[in-house]
């Protein structure tokens, strides 16, 4: 008999967990380190195990209660087919579990289990639709191939433009000067930085681009408008899968919304819950 439910939300920054009883009372919460299982499969799953162990410890429950528990973990990278295959070999002794992508739990939570879509736009980006029966996923293949309108992609475009302005190939602007000053106005320093930069490093420049765009910086405005076009491409694709509400999530969502067309903004609704809510609700869906 199921006594306890565990929800996990794991991404490139941290892994959050929540343990509840059958009355949905929260018994424990804990946040651990990164759990992107595409970039760090083994360490990501170890982080999930660490979070589960800590949740039971904080709830003063023995690990023997794993046999009476179920877990749904929404993890970044779990949408990749080869990763899904590797996951079939993983288990926590005695604990029934399901691992899905973090965009699925975010979508389920945003609409509290009802049909709807999400476009998550943060360091990366991905869209999902829940039609009441199954999920449809769009994007989420990384900044080099995908992640339209994401912070990482916007940051990369901004640095490329800043370098062009630095070399006099195009005109400069306060935003471009701000970015180059971060690299001491030295193209080689920027080049060496790119050799080790991760998506989150590129994404940190997105906030500045949006701020300069609000001040009518012409290059920042161009970049933000391009991001808005890319975002609308993703959101329009989501709209082909659902007539229900669509929610924008992630760190880039709030500054992005004012740049979207009226038609797109009309379809956007506020999230009713988050990814942890979605994971726990999915556990009820899988183990009713």
Explain what you see:
The chain has 288 residues and is of the alpha/beta class. The protein has two domains: 4-112 and 272-286, Nucleotidyltransferase, domain 5; 151-267, ATPase, nucleotide binding domain (Nucleotidyltransferase, domain 5), CATH 3.30.420. 44% of the residues lie in helices and 19% in strands. The protein contains twelve helices and nine strands. It has helices spanning 41-58, 81-87, 102-110, 151-166, 174-181, 187-194, 199-203, 206-214, 218-241, 253-256, 262-267, 275-286; strands at 4-10, 15-21, 26-32, 69-75, 96-101, 116-121, 125-130, 135-139, 246-249. The strands form two sheets. Strands 3-2-1-4-5 form a five-stranded mixed β-sheet, sandwiched between helices. A hairpin with a 4-residue loop joins strand 7 and strand 8 (135-139). The longest helix is centred in the C-terminal third of the chain and has 24 residues, at 218-241. The chain is globular. It starts with a strand and ends with a helix. It comes from Rosenbergiella australiborealis. Residues 6-265 form the ATPase BadF/BadG/BcrA/BcrD type domain. GO terms for molecular function: kinase activity. This is N-acetylglucosamine kinase. It holds the Pfam family BcrAD_BadFG.
